[in-house]
Amino acid sequence: MIVDLHSHFFPAEAANAARSSVRVEAGPSAGQTHLRVDGQDFIVPAAITDPATQAREATQAGLDARALLPPPFAVRYELDPDDGVDWSRRLNEGTAAAAASDPERLIGFASVPLQAGGERAAAELDYAIGSLGLRGVELLTSVCGTGLDAAQFDTFWAAVAELGVPVVIHPHYVAGAQHMRQYYLRNLVGNPTETALAGARLIYSGLLRRYPGLHVILCHGGGALPHIIGRLRHGFRSRPELRDAADPDEGLRRLFYDTVVFDPTVLRHLAELVGHRQLVVGSDYPFDMAEPRPAAFVADSGLSEQAVASVLHSADRLFAS
């Protein structure tokens, strides 16, 4: 199967039923959808709340199925722990219902309340996978600035490893965003930089070594992370702060990377750095920063026939483990 593992869906009605303080309003806006989430306004493609459109447009894009991930603004780690637990439950129930409406073409991914600590996040993941039938989990790159390698999340990572589900890490809470207000730089530069920061922490901390069964996917081709491997490697060999860190070359090849890079030269370079078996199809659908033909982009990238087949069918490996 060709599965888009980086695409977004927001179950607005289910989210609005949460007991948390977050209020959700959704309405039409010139052919798009106007979402107001906790007082913040987002003009988004109407498909983000419509599973039927998601499934139909997946087929039109040459995909067999697509994952339903909450858009990053919907994850809400800034909620207090109790509100966060309930908010994640509503998102997961709404996503599960959407996936069940077309189970051949839609694959639900969970959200978990990491701000409530590893045990509660693990409990929600277990419910989402075991009871709701979701197939993976999306995390943001930090929990309001706290790295995903922090000790309070160890219980959660142990649960992920035991369940064997893929983890998609999406940038948000961008460090230095106050300096990126012009030219859409918060997204264009901030997102790939934030992903590199999260990935470097996962690698150097040894988390990937401690849980060797993890399948962690970094969005946007890993952002800047693969392209600064020489610097990460030199620091590992040279700096005393990294004396007890894990080898960045080993970690880089353990992670997975989606194909949302928009340039075939970059995709080929990424495959050369990490191996084509570490690449997965992604689009960032339905936003305007999406790759509109993700399968064709891979097929036409200049990768070898074997590599193209490996990337296009990467989901078979991730969901089979």
TrEMBL record:
<feature type="domain" description="Amidohydrolase-related">
    <location>
        <begin position="3"/>
        <end position="319"/>
    </location>
</feature>
<dbReference type="GO" id="GO:0016787">
    <property type="term" value="F:hydrolase activity"/>
</dbReference>
<dbReference type="InterPro" id="IPR032465">
    <property type="entry name" value="ACMSD"/>
</dbReference>
<dbReference type="Pfam" id="PF04909">
    <property type="entry name" value="Amidohydro_2"/>
</dbReference>
<dbReference type="GO" id="GO:0005737">
    <property type="term" value="C:cytoplasm"/>
</dbReference>
<protein>
    <submittedName>
        <fullName>2-hydroxy-3-carboxy-6-oxo-7-methylocta-2,4-dienoa te decarboxylase</fullName>
    </submittedName>
</protein>
<keyword id="KW-0456">Lyase</keyword>
<dbReference type="GO" id="GO:0019748">
    <property type="term" value="P:secondary metabolic process"/>
</dbReference>
<dbReference type="InterPro" id="IPR006680">
    <property type="entry name" value="Amidohydro-rel"/>
</dbReference>
<dbReference type="InterPro" id="IPR032466">
    <property type="entry name" value="Metal_Hydrolase"/>
</dbReference>
<dbReference type="GO" id="GO:0016831">
    <property type="term" value="F:carboxy-lyase activity"/>
</dbReference>
